[in-house]
Each structure stands twice: as structure tokens, then as C-alpha cells.
Specification:
The chain has about 110 residues and is an alpha+beta fold. The chain has two helices and seven strands, in the order H-E-E-E-E-E-E-E-H.
Length: about 110
């Protein structure tokens, strides 16, 4: 994965994000003192050859930094949130089909 400072000049080389590479810590509950394991990819994350993707759903939140995904709870610090965008609702399947058709023909 590319260093954050190369993606966005406002980030310094010393800035760190748990999301920018390596394993992601998953917690049983939204607390650091609960059982923890690591994953390399979210099971709900997929990007097609055309670039259209599905992304992990957030099923619940606790405070501003804890997010419940399919695998368990993740903690996002303020720097991590610079890499994340949240969208409500379902994907537009009609737009996806049109996008994929365009990609296949060009």
C-alpha cells in the first residue's frame, strides 16, 4: 500500500494509520480490553476488474471511533478516518450494471 504522505500532502511521513497496510485488528466488543484477532481483508470488500466495488457495511457504532463490521468491532482513529468515506443506503444496481457494461465495451 502507498504511504499516506504520497496520497495526500497534508499527511506527514510520521503519521500512522492502522488501515494503510498490514493486518486489521478486530475486537469482540467496542473496547480495547476485549478479545482481539486480526484480518488482512474485510469479507464484504470486493472490487471488480472495472473498479466497481462493494465495501464493508457498518452495522452499528459506539462513540465516534468504534464501528461494527461483519467480522467484529474496529477502532478508527482520526487519521484512519482520513482514508474512509461513509455512505448510507444500498448501491445503485442499475448504475453498476451500466458502468460494468461500459467497461466491457471500452
Amino acid at each position: 500500500m502507498v504511504c499516506a504522505s504520497r496520497l495526500n500532502p497534508r499527511f506527514k511521513v510520521m503519521d500512522e494509520s492502522n488501515l494503510r497496510g498490514g493486518a486489521i485488528s478486530i475486537y469482540e466488543a467496542p473496547r480495547f480490553d476485549t478479545e482481539k484477532f486480526t484480518i488482512n481483508n474485510f469479507s464484504e470488500f470486493f472490487v471488480s476488474n472495472s473498479g466497481w466495488g462493494t465495501f464493508p457495511n457498518v452495522y452499528s457504532t459506539s462513540g465516534d471511533c468504534w464501528f461494527k463490521v461483519k467480522e467484529g468491532w474496529i477502532f478508527l482513529n482520526s487519521f484512519d478516518k482520513g482514508f474512509v468515506q461513509f455512505y448510507q443506503g444500498d448501491q445503485d444496481e442499475a448504475a453498476k450494471a451500466a458502468y460494468e457494461a461500459y467497461f466491457r465495451t471500452h
